[in-house]
Amino acid sequence: MKMQLWSVGKPNEAYAKAGIDDFTKRINNYFSAEWHIISPPKNAGNLSETDLKKAEAAIILGQLQKDDYLILLDERGKAFSSPELAQWLQQRANESTKRIVFLIGGAFGVDDTVMKRANHTWSLSKLVFPHMLVRLILAEQIYRACTILRNEKYHHS
Question: pTM value?
């Protein structure tokens, strides 16, 4: 199973990059994982919130493959404990899911077309975090879930 971690926005900032890179490298010991940073449209500053979300949606939907399992990160989604996330990932693997795409939307969230395309909406927290921290938390939590599946010592329940 391949994991794609997508985020709309700027490249990783230095304060988060080292952690994101480290956890992504660790995930690769379990599953193939890579980041894809989606640049906002060139004219983003001139667009209304609605038009910006539509433009970002066109880019996202254009890059998704038909069989991709899309997980949208959104504070209104379903929350998991770390062991629940591990079980959830194992279910995707058991179903022979080829590629999972974890998506962190743009500054204003995502357009309804992306919401409707999502197979699952996941909330890391009811709190709203900066994109860079969400990227770091996402990578760490996926790594944690992998260690839980292998019964390794990283996670302490």
Answer: 0.95
